Amino acid sequence: MSGSPLASTSGASFTGIAAHPSGSFLYATDSTCVDGGSSNRLYGYVIDPSTGALTAIGGSPFTLPGSSGCYYDEDVAAEASGNFVYTVDANDGVAAYKVNSQTGALTLASSSFTGPAALTLATVPNAISSTATLTGLQIVPVTAQITTSTLGKQCQFTLKGTFSDGSTGFLIASATWSSSDTGVATTAAGLATSTGYGTTAITATVNGVSATRL
């Protein structure tokens, strides 16, 4: 794969890695100690849906709480809704980040570490009730534009469902996807491929509930 293997800007190996539940982004930690210097040790990448190649997310690597010090950023995890990513430091505890659903960029949700220090980290999703019904769908990104003179370019859409018990989950593979004009783009499993020039609407349907994006 082009660009593989990846390495952090410090040249150290990554110690933790986690895929965003949408399948669109990848996050990695680097535990190298930077004593007295700025600490930027959480890396983010966009996953190319057709090749799997990784491209750095704008703003990556992302800053840990505190402006300087010696940090050992050991592991990273994304929670099931895709709204937050967490990283754990071997000495200071856990830091939380808000995820931009369209770009994958991270913003610190707290100005300090909290909780116990650890070497590994995991999130446990809330179980969806067996009686819960699907009440809504959201396609991300809200709009997509493929600007190119070469046909066959692609854009990956993700699909998040909301259930009657308040839980959420990604339903990309569970949906039936369609394009209103296949002469402009086709779509399968949320992956739209340009076939011509113009505008088309992408629709995803699960259990009779639909969402559409232009």
Gyration radius (Cα, Å) is 19 Å
Q: Indicate the structural class.
A: mainly beta
Q: Approximately how much beta-strand content do the residues carry?
A: 35-45%
Give me the count of strands: 18
Order of helices and strands: EEEEEEEEEEEEEEEEEE
Bulk shape: globular
Q: How widely separated are the two ends?
A: 31 Å
Task: Describe the protein.
There is one protein chain. The protein is mainly beta and 214 residues long. The chain has no helices and 18 strands. 0% of the residues lie in helices and 40% in strands. It starts with 15 loop residues before the first strand and ends with a strand. The mean pLDDT is 82.
Task: Jot down its keywords.
Immunoglobulin-like; 5-stranded antiparallel beta sheet; 214 residues; mainly beta
